[in-house]
Amino acid sequence: MPIQKPLSKGSRDPYVTTAQQQLVALGYALPRFGVDGGLGDETLAAYGAFMVAQGLRAPSDEHPRSITPAGAAALDAAFQA
User: In 1-81, at which residue ranges do the beta strands (DSSP E only) sit?
Assistant: First the structure.
């Protein structure tokens, strides 16, 4: 289920739950809040680590402020692989 626009911190879009489930399944821990459907710092940090591991952002970049459509597509593809 790709997203059409970036999801920023505080979003409660249904895709946030999907992204959290995919991140956890791919080994990116969400130890404090888990899969709670809210896009917060913990989820954005895990998403940023995923993006770095995929070579889609530099490790020196600050944590992402949103989940982008391109990032969501990369996460969906990695999860389905």
Answer: 7-8, 66-67
